């Protein structure tokens, strides 16, 4: 063995480049090529939340994505998730006697609605407001929250005519939300979720038990999406969730996608076995979550042209309220044996 | 679908050339080499000096970006150029590295209780051995830079020559001198 072999043998194993630090170094490099300007806006969430608290009302709007003069290019999915993890801040601090209010938009291909057998294609759209209790369920309290759902004007699917029945569904209804056992997403449960990456991975795995034997990246994505949908995940858990997602192989980025509200962002996600790409959408400036979407990427597997939108959502607003709308609670919920799902 | 296909493989030189008109293209060079350069800087400066390795990596690409117009576009592989820049920056941290090598030189090579050696620097010490650490600490800064490029960074002699802009014959003769120096220290302390 010669001297160089000795040195090679002593070559230390080192930890990988921290993705967050790496992303910052890359940013610095990109900045060096741009005209000098303030590029990163302050976290609108924190500022808006702070000001609104002072007047006793918390109202937070997810900022619309501006059109930056220079587009970020070739960012990796893991980098986007790490940035989103780093940018996560607690937007609201509800008291136990209050309600978390989440406003969302949804667009779904009607043919996927389970109760319909007509297989008609048009986009069914919902505008929802949910009120979720911030404290533990009290004695005599049978529900976890209330959902006010308005079916808004439908949209045409790939130029196909919209059936008349689509307009007949328009209107508003209010229903209770009762989470099913082991699928609770109420705030007291959600804020006890792990705040570390390993713990969060284990939780995503647990969400699929006993249905799935192995947590695939795609199943992990679906579980993560579920945790983020019409809930308020505190910053620590949100950060852990994004970082946990970044650890799965096969996650890719789509640089310019739109959420259900038409806001542009960066899509990060996986392709399902049936040829549909599912992705979370992040604001390219603040890395705040805008929504999610699923779109056909493999025409053969999905039996639809590539690029066809399957569904999209947008998370519009998170706020806190002292009360929720009254809703009729059926006796079946009082028995504790019924739940409404998500 | 946009953004789902991998970036087409173009040479580093072509990327650098494109970055002259479109500066953001240079980020692709970062994507190609940042992990490698960071790994090298961390090995050189020690896991315990991670922030210095982070700085060296970021500075390497910033410096490369600033002088990209002077890059010799006939060299399709930019790795030697980047390692050359990184080496110069690491050399500025030579006090850190020397301190580390000297500290390693004082650590006994046969630890009585290896199972309690948790930190990476202690493991380095065990692997490097105090005598080798001592030999490395006695080399000149330029010698260490060259030696580590052809060992830890696995650059060929030709690439090392490009990194330091010296003839490949000079690389060979310098390395042979370095080997002799190390051998002497190892034999003296045996």
TrEMBL record, chain A:
<dbReference type="InterPro" id="IPR047789">
    <property type="entry name" value="CU044_5270-like"/>
</dbReference>
<keyword id="KW-0472">Membrane</keyword>
<feature type="transmembrane region" description="Helical">
    <location>
        <begin position="43"/>
        <end position="62"/>
    </location>
</feature>
<keyword id="KW-1133">Transmembrane helix</keyword>
<keyword id="KW-0812">Transmembrane</keyword>
<protein>
    <submittedName>
        <fullName>CU044_5270 family protein</fullName>
    </submittedName>
</protein>
TrEMBL record, chain B:
<dbReference type="InterPro" id="IPR007627">
    <property type="entry name" value="RNA_pol_sigma70_r2"/>
</dbReference>
<dbReference type="InterPro" id="IPR013249">
    <property type="entry name" value="RNA_pol_sigma70_r4_t2"/>
</dbReference>
<dbReference type="InterPro" id="IPR013325">
    <property type="entry name" value="RNA_pol_sigma_r2"/>
</dbReference>
<feature type="domain" description="RNA polymerase sigma-70 region 2">
    <location>
        <begin position="29"/>
        <end position="97"/>
    </location>
</feature>
<feature type="domain" description="RNA polymerase sigma factor 70 region 4 type 2">
    <location>
        <begin position="132"/>
        <end position="182"/>
    </location>
</feature>
<dbReference type="GO" id="GO:0016987">
    <property type="term" value="F:sigma factor activity"/>
</dbReference>
<dbReference type="InterPro" id="IPR036388">
    <property type="entry name" value="WH-like_DNA-bd_sf"/>
</dbReference>
<keyword id="KW-0731">Sigma factor</keyword>
<dbReference type="Pfam" id="PF04542">
    <property type="entry name" value="Sigma70_r2"/>
</dbReference>
<protein>
    <submittedName>
        <fullName>RNA polymerase sigma factor</fullName>
    </submittedName>
</protein>
<dbReference type="InterPro" id="IPR014284">
    <property type="entry name" value="RNA_pol_sigma-70_dom"/>
</dbReference>
<keyword id="KW-0804">Transcription</keyword>
<comment type="similarity">
    <text>Belongs to the sigma-70 factor family. ECF subfamily.</text>
</comment>
<dbReference type="Pfam" id="PF08281">
    <property type="entry name" value="Sigma70_r4_2"/>
</dbReference>
<dbReference type="GO" id="GO:0006352">
    <property type="term" value="P:DNA-templated transcription initiation"/>
</dbReference>
<dbReference type="GO" id="GO:0003677">
    <property type="term" value="F:DNA binding"/>
</dbReference>
<keyword id="KW-0805">Transcription regulation</keyword>
<dbReference type="InterPro" id="IPR039425">
    <property type="entry name" value="RNA_pol_sigma-70-like"/>
</dbReference>
<dbReference type="InterPro" id="IPR013324">
    <property type="entry name" value="RNA_pol_sigma_r3/r4-like"/>
</dbReference>
């Amino acid at each position: 063995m010669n001297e160089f072999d000795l040195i090679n043998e002593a070559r230390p194993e080192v930890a990988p480049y921290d993705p967050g630090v790496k992303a910052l170094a890359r940013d610095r490099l990109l900045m060096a090529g741009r005209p000098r300007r303030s590029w990163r806006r302050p976290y609108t969430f924190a500022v808006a939340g702070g000001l609104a608290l002072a007047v006793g009302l918390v109202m937070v709007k997810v900022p619309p994505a501006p059109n930056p003069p220079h587009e970020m290019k070739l960012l990796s999915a893991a980098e986007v998730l790490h940035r989103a993890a780093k940018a996560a801040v607690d937007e609201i601090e509800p008291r136990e006697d209050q309600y978390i209010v989440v406003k969302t938009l949804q667009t779904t291909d009607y043919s996927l609605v389970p109760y319909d057998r007509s297989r008609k294609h048009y986009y069914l759209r919902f505008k929802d407001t949910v009120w979720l209790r911030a404290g533990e369920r009290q004695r005599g309290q049978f529900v976890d929250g209330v959902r006010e759902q308005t079916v808004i004007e439908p949209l045409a699917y790939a130029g196909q005519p919209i059936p008349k029945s689509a307009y007949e569904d328009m209107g508003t209804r209010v229903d209770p939300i009762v989470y099913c056992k082991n699928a609770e997403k109420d705030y007291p449960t959600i804020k006890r979720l792990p705040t570390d990456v390993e713990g969060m991975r284990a939780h995503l795995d647990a969400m699929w038990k006993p249905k799935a034997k192995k947590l695939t990246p795609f199943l992990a994505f679906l579980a993560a999406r579920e945790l983020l949908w019409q809930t308020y995940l505190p910053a620590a858990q949100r950060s852990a969730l994004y970082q946990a997602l970044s650890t799965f192989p096969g996650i890719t980025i789509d640089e310019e996608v739109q959420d259900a509200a038409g806001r542009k962002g960066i899509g990060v996600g996986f392709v399902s076995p049936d040829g549909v790409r599912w992705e979370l959408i992040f604001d390219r400036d603040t890395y705040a979550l805008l929504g999610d979407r699923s779109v056909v990427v493999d025409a053969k597997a999905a039996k639809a042209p590539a690029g066809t939108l399957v569904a999209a959502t947008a998370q519009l607003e998170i706020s806190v309220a002292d009360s929720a709308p009254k809703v009729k609670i059926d006796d079946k919920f009082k028995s504790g044996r019924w739940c409404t799902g998500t | 679908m946009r953004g789902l296909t991998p970036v087409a493989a173009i040479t580093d030189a072509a990327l650098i050339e494109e970055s002259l008109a479109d500066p953001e293209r240079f980020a692709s060079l970062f994507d190609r080499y940042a992990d490698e350069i960071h790994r090298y800087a961390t090995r050189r400066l020690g896991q315990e000096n991670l922030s210095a390795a982070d700085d060296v990596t970021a500075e390497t690409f910033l410096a490369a970006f600033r002088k990209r117009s002077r890059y010799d576009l006939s060299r399709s592989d930019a790795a030697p150029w980047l390692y050359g820049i990184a080496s110069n920056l690491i050399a500025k941290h030579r006090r850190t590295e020397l301190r580390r090598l000297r500290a390693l030189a004082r650590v006994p090579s046969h630890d009585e209780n290896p199972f309690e050696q948790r930190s990476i620097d202690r493991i380095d010490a065990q692997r490097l051995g105090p005598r080798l650490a001592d030999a490395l600490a006695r080399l000149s800064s330029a010698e260490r830079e060259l030696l580590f490029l052809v060992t830890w960074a696995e650059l060929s002699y030709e690439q090392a020559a490009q990194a330091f802009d010296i003839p490949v014959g000079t690389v060979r003769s310098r390395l042979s001198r370095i080997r002799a120096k190390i051998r002497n220290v190892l034999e003296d302390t045996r």
